[in-house]
Amino acid sequence: MEKDKIDKKDHILDVAEKVFADLGYDGASTRTISGEAGVNMAMLNYYFGSKEGLFLAVFERKINSFRTLLQNIGNDESMTPWDKLSKCIDNYVERIIANNCFQKLINREVSMNKRGDLTDKIIEILMVNVIEIKKIIEEGVTNGQFYHEVDVPLVIATMFGTKNYIVNMPQLSSIIIGHDIREEKFMEEELKPRVKTYMKRLLKAYLVNEHDNSK
């Protein structure tokens, strides 16, 4: 019974994510979402309370699953800070660049910046994963594997900004890269490995102290 309840909630969240991404927060309605999910309004309201509650639940599900992964990487004492960051980049690219629906949802709502309280809650949820990345970089600075003068905020901006540019400006990115980045085969076989390699080479050159003996 409990599994059925969880599966039902996940199904509603899957449908809500797509509807919110396609129509935006203002254009979507709980009635539309309940209809597409094949559930009644009473059930949707029981699980999520309101449209805002449903909207935030979509974000929290995606972000929290990645946060657990980042925390596990960050707490692995067998890995150096650079190895941790490299693994974070691999997982980040795998999970985020391919998930255009969720990325479109984030970009649409955060960039509009017109719903103060809701936007603040979204930013708060997103910052959880930013903090996990920051901890790994600061660990590298503290133990000497990374240069002492590293600009941590700009490293984080580079990681997230590269993704934002590619995902949120697909037409321009496709022209620059020379291929339609929305083509699934190209994304899986060429774009994702290319982005991983680029980000790791770029950040390693900036971060890693060549005189550190712990590498």
UniProtKB/TrEMBL annotation:
<keyword id="KW-0238">DNA-binding</keyword>
<dbReference type="InterPro" id="IPR009057">
    <property type="entry name" value="Homeodomain-like_sf"/>
</dbReference>
<dbReference type="InterPro" id="IPR036271">
    <property type="entry name" value="Tet_transcr_reg_TetR-rel_C_sf"/>
</dbReference>
<feature type="DNA-binding region" description="H-T-H motif">
    <location>
        <begin position="29"/>
        <end position="48"/>
    </location>
</feature>
<dbReference type="GO" id="GO:0003677">
    <property type="term" value="F:DNA binding"/>
</dbReference>
<dbReference type="InterPro" id="IPR023772">
    <property type="entry name" value="DNA-bd_HTH_TetR-type_CS"/>
</dbReference>
<dbReference type="Pfam" id="PF08359">
    <property type="entry name" value="TetR_C_4"/>
</dbReference>
<protein>
    <submittedName>
        <fullName>TetR family transcriptional regulator</fullName>
    </submittedName>
</protein>
<dbReference type="InterPro" id="IPR050109">
    <property type="entry name" value="HTH-type_TetR-like_transc_reg"/>
</dbReference>
<feature type="domain" description="HTH tetR-type">
    <location>
        <begin position="6"/>
        <end position="66"/>
    </location>
</feature>
<dbReference type="InterPro" id="IPR013570">
    <property type="entry name" value="Tscrpt_reg_YsiA_C"/>
</dbReference>
<dbReference type="InterPro" id="IPR001647">
    <property type="entry name" value="HTH_TetR"/>
</dbReference>
<dbReference type="Pfam" id="PF00440">
    <property type="entry name" value="TetR_N"/>
</dbReference>
